[in-house]
Amino acid sequence: MEVPHREVELPECPVCLQIYNSGGTIPRVLSCGHSACEACLGQLSQRFPNTIRCPACTQLVKFPEAQGPSALPKNIDLLSFIDQQNPDPNSSQSHRKTQDNPNRGSAREFLPRLPWSEEFYSTWKDWVLPFDAVSVEDRGEEGDEAPCCSLLQGRIASSSSSSSSPLRYCFLRQNQNVSLFRVAFSSSSASEFSFSYTARIMIALNNLKDGERTELGLILRTSLRQFRVCRVYGLWMDSKTGSVSLVCERLNGDFWNKLDGLRHGLVVEDCGDPDKEEQGFRTDAELSGFLMIGMDLCEAVMALHSEGLVNGCLAPSCFSFDDLGRIYVDLNEILVMGRRMWKCIANFASGRQVTNNLETEDRFTNLSKVQEFVSPELLLEFLQGRCMDADCESLGYSVGYGSDSWSLACILVRFLVGGKLTEKLFKDFYNLFQTGREKISTEYLDMYEGWTEKVGSVLETYLGTKFASLQKILCRCFAFDPGSRPHVTDVWRCIRELLVAPNIDMLVSLEVAIVKEEYTVHCLILGDLCHLFPETVKGSENQSRNDLQGSDDSSGTDANKIRDGRINEDLVEDLLMGTLKSINLKGHLDCISRLVIGGGFLFSSSYDKTLHVWSLQDFTYVQSFRGHEHRIMAVVFVDAGKQLCISGDIGGGIFIWDIGSSLEQEPLKKWYEQKDWRYSGIHSLAISGTEHLYTGSGDRSIKAWSLKDYTLTCTMNGHKSTVSSLAICNGVLYSGSWDGTIRLWYLNDHSPLTVLGDDTPGNVASVLSLSVNHHMLVAASENGCLKMWRNDVLERSIQIENGAILAIELEGQLLFAGGWNKTVYVQEISGDELQIDTQKIGSIACSSVITALLYWQGKLFVGFADGTIKVYCHGL
User: Fold this and answer.
1) For residue 805, how far is the Cα from the chain centroid?
2) CB of 434 within 8 A of CB of 361?
3) Cα distances (angstroms) measured from residue 797 to each of 540, 735, 779
4) Helix, strand, or coil here: 701?
């Protein structure tokens, strides 16, 4: 049987993806072992002299800049293989495998299940206002949803992550009035680990239902796009109560009082009819003032409709004047009104029978008094209790754009005829529902038709024949079938034609494309956010906390934790973090300087001149290494045939300890660096494989010592002050100094590559700690600032505390930092090729200054200035 020929994938250049050949795509071998074609190597950017980054592994390698890529050796074997075009089963394409250090653990073991994705975070992060941006002046009575607040933050500028949204630049004036609408709760954790302010908001948002988050995003997008909608600045959390609220613009104009004041100046009073407040407008010119206000009201509602938002109910409180007299629609007030309506009418929902007609009448009378004009179809939805299923079409009449036409017409009638007559008219309307009817009968429609005729008669009295078109369109707005009502756009056109003659109006031909058919109509009053009663959510939260604390049955507890088809906040944090516990390792008498793991042990160096050894099995004390005469500043571990622990002290002493089965007390080798009166000993150590030991010293130099015979190989000079930290990654030695700079050295020949940082007098911030992971370099400074470089380019600088950051640890995407503030800060690094972003995940409050950090297999080791070491882990 003939074996079918397998087509071999020939090797290709990692840059241009062209197959190698002996002509124009000659493979040249770099010192890291990878190959790239000669043409591409000549075009690679050279950030540092005589070096390039390998396009395959991105490691810095030597490059003969003067001679060019032709001076590099050809990959003859590769060319021979291609020429033969014969697949060799023993020679497969090499894939670069990342060899994880067995002493390291996945950073996700410490934060195992963050519930939000990077995409989720990038979508919502720009809407999170700083925790000190809002100061609550008056919380109001219990259950008040919109307390008056004062915004203290001056300016927030950030870009929205939504591709469909423009850049979000919010200018917030100091002491600007805002209102709050509670949308979620974020409970605090009882663990030693405390989530950050932003992380708690993300947890609360992630815990919302999909529909609730979608509606929240729709509201935020509408406030961005529409000029006639009061701005929604973002999300803010009250750290004390854990309530997450929408922060909304609060205009000072009192809409209804201003309108009533204007109306009383325009109409003839004391008409003698007890059922009427006024007789009508004195002149047509005075009626024009009403028409101008009517146009503004229409334009505000049209702004919502252009985003697919409807209400089904409008009230005077939903509108506000700005300082220039323009009318805006207030989304916060609409949501507050909707939540209040649910409280008022929801008792009639879910099939509950009404037995007390007087009770029903009282509730509807209250609606007419507060002048919240609920469209018939929305009112029937409430009474029938179908809103819980979001089934708005079950009655044959759905809540839509026509519903707002009905409510807007009510407001215009209110302004035309006055408060007392309007209250009487709508009391009659609500009385149609006092028996709690759930079916539309012929008798009911006849009663409603009689009510609309009465409204038309009142309008005819106040508008007269000259404004018959306005009377006609307003009467059409009161049609029972929402589909037969005119759009708000039609009402706007009618009012405009009364103000400006069509033959001279140059803008009348323009299309007012307000209602966009591609949008799905979303009713805010029937939306998910109005269903969230704060006391109900808070009560559920407290109940779930009791369930967590009082039940030992896991199955029963889980059943109680799940409510309304979702997991509550406490369970999210319980699954997310479990219980962060800690154990203390006590034995040192002074400040912990460094922590390192190797050979199954934890080694801790201290200012008490001792080196302690701890078991990683049960974290018990094993023994101490003694012999240093000065404070031990650094310690490293190396497996060079023998397992060795190397320590350096402030007096220049270097001690090598053999880590055998007996853990010898005496050092295997010790020697001292030369020193003079300026010298302050060794401050940092680093190991390069099994070849060299590097020491960072107070004499501003870095020395390389051979691990074979412990002789000095070379001295690297360039820093202007003490070398405080050393780190090695991808063939490069990174050295941080008190002079505020970080220098990069090529390990093959110890030549300098570049200098990062700023050593300009007056701008120097001493580098106290370094951490490197692949292409990411993070440096901590004495001014509390963290700087991040990627591929040797500064990407981000963040201020995390006021005091010095003495220790940092970068593991995967997690960054741990601590210092004078006695707090371990946990941040997650994310981003793409264009930029780096950081998420503040949380913090661990400590009782002493943090001087050393180490992460290993899901455990965080923290060394303190008081000589204590703490091990933090879940389920210790």
Assistant:
1) 25
2) yes
3) 41, 19, 10
4) strand
Count of beta carbons in the 10 Å neighbourhood of residue 674: 10
Would you place residue 854 in the very low, low, confident or very high pLDDT band (cuts 50, 70, 90)? very high
Q: In whole angstroms, what is the distance from residue 792 CA to residue 777 CA?
A: 8
Q: Where residue 55 sits, what CATH number does that domain have?
A: 3.30.40.10
Residue that is last in its domain, among 250, 275, 294: 250
Asked if residue 341 and residue 301 are part of one domain, the reply reads yes
Alpha-carbon span 491 to 506, nearest angstrom? 19
If one counts every other C-beta atom within 10 angstroms of the C-beta of residue 189, the result is: 20
370 and 298 in one domain? yes
Q: What is the DSSP letter of 621?
A: E
487, part of any domain: yes
Distance CA 235, CA 418 (A): 39
Is there a single domain that holds both residue 230 and residue 196?
yes
Query: What is the per-residue pLDDT for 284?
Result: 60
436, 497 contact by CB (below 8 A): no
Residue 537 DSSP SS3: helix
Distance of alpha carbon 632 from alpha carbon 852, whole angstroms: 13
For 628, the token pair is 């240093």
CATH code, domain carrying 503: 1.10.510.10
Q: Which DSSP category does 109 fall into?
A: G
E strand map for 273-314: 278-281, 309-310, 313-314
Q: What share of the chain is helix, strand, coil (3-state, %, to 5)?
A: 30, 30, 40
Contact predicate 804/819, CB 8 Å: yes
Angle between the 442-463 and 401-417 helix axes, to the nearest 10 degrees?
Answer: 50
Q: Strands (DSSP E) along 405-558, which ranges?
A: 522-523
Strand, coil or helix: 137: strand
Q: Taking the CA atoms of the chain, what radius of gyration do you get in angstroms? A: 37
pLDDT score at 87? 45
Instruction: Decide if 724 is inside a domain.
Output: no
Q: Are residues 285 and 420 in the same domain?
A: yes
Does residue 216 sit in the same domain as residue 304? no
Using the predicted structure, report yes or no on whether residue 26 has a pLDDT greater than 60.
yes
Structural domain range at position 130:
122-250
Query: pLDDT band at residue 654, thresholds of 50, 70 and 90?
Result: very high
pLDDT confidence band for 370 (50 / 70 / 90) = low
**296 and 347, same domain (yes or no):** yes
Q: What is the C-alpha end-to-end distance of the chain, expressed in Å?
A: 63
CATH of residue 171: 3.30.200
| Mean pLDDT, residues 593-613 | 94
Tell me, yes or no, whether 857 lies in a domain. no
Residue whose C-alpha is closest to residue 819's, from 832, 806, 831, 828: 806
CB atoms near residue 599 (< 10 Å): 17
| Cα(82)–Cα(830) distance, integer angstroms | 41
Residue 329, domain member (yes or no): yes
DSSP 360: H
Q: Is the pLDDT of residue 244 over 70?
A: yes
CA dist 758 and 739 (Å) reads: 8
CA angle 213, 215, 220 (to 5 degrees): 95
The DSSP H or E segment spanning 855 is strand 850-856
**465 Cβ contact list (under 8 Å, min separation 6):** none
Strand positions, DSSP E, 417-462: none
Residue 89: is it exposed, middle or buried by C-beta count within 10 angstroms (0-12/13-18/19+)? exposed
Question: What global pTM score does this model have?
Answer: 0.71
Q: Per residue in 389-441, pLDDT tens?
A: 333 343 457 888 999 999 999 888 887 777 677 777 777 777 776 554 445 56
Question: Based on the structure, what is the number of domains in the chain?
Answer: 3
Residue 174 scores a pLDDT above 60: yes
